[in-house]
Amino acid sequence: MRLQLGSGGGVPTPLALALLCLAAPAAAQPETRVAVDALYYTDTDNVMAFTPSVSARHRFEDGGSVGARGALDVITAASVDVVSHATNRFDEARTEGAIDFAVPIDDALFRMAYRASWEPDYLSNGLSAGLQLRLGSADSVLDVSYGLTWDVVGRTHTPWSSFSEDLFTHALSLSLTQNLGPETVLRLVYSPTIQDGYLEKPYRYVPLFDDTGQQLASRVPENVPDLRHGHAFGARLLQYLEPIDGSLRVDYQLYVDGWGVTGHVVEAVGLASASDGLRFGLRGRFYGQTAASFWQRQYTVPPGQLPRWRTLDRDLSPYVSVTGAARLEWNVDDVSGYLDGAATYTRFLDFLLLDERVAIVTQIGFRWTPR
Amino acid sequence: MWVRTLLLIAALLAATGCATTRPWEREALSRGVMRMDGDAEEEALRHHVLSTREGTAGSLGGGGGGCGCN
What we know:
A: 371 residues; Porin; 16-stranded antiparallel β-barrel; disordered N terminus; B: 70 residues
């Protein structure tokens, strides 16, 4: 069923329009797929991470699906904020598991997912649910989802009974994906988030300075507000490029929050087909953010006093980063894969311990879909 | 207040739901290069890195779009 606007009498309400537009999702061929991915990250701040993951997914004919995923994060860090706390380096492993399913219900697709990750000093559980609804045809798709994450923050070599703090994150997402024509798709997204709980890092101790600029002998634990409201507004435009059988995708996202941080993301991705089973891609990304209202490069205090809010978190300081990336995708019979390499330059504009960082991220993946 | 705002946004989004392509016009939309969302497993790894390297980076994930083939 399709709806042609602008014909007929009267002015229908938005809800009536939405109900009129409902149509059943199209059926799909059943399919089972096994995926193996690996990511290697290294940067000039002496951080290295290797993350392999494996997953399996089965799609049913009615559009439903079930999936499971496992990942391992091996991290070695001797970054400047680590060594500034008189620690040479740390090595850590994080394990993650996730399951999800999707079920068609009448004209909608309902989905749920659960994710858990654990490491020696951090536990995380996330549960999410979403509903996808076609508004009349495949041209307009509304998606609403909600996720609740419960994190438990601990300290290495400290029993959970001696130190543990909770952090709850509520994330809502509302998106509309609209085909603007036979070769153009637009998506608008609004995502409010609330973080409630322990938002500090137990290892971060903030240096204090007197009014002559001399660092005081002792550092104090980081302390930030327990509540953070964020709002992200995003747009994604995808355009088919017929001469190269490729596409150009442009994303923009604006983020604002109650701590005074404003962030901008601009990303452009170009893909071109070399043959039926071979594609090349280029990606460029800009990220920039302002500082939190309570951010200071140096906290200068009168003797015997402490600033109520103090932090050493780089992600609350102003900085910009640019990324350039290239990728290759291939498909041979039942096996497909990709290789993606990216380099990111980050400039910290007001951070005491670090001015710049260059990071290299390499990612490779294989998909096996028996037919 | 927020609930009312969200309902208003949802109603406005729903109001825009309308057909702009006919089934036989969706050949380009069905091409592999026209996936609105990347591969889920690949994106999961990539966003894990972004979430630790960019303070406010979120996701532009959503649902559907394109040819509506599956």
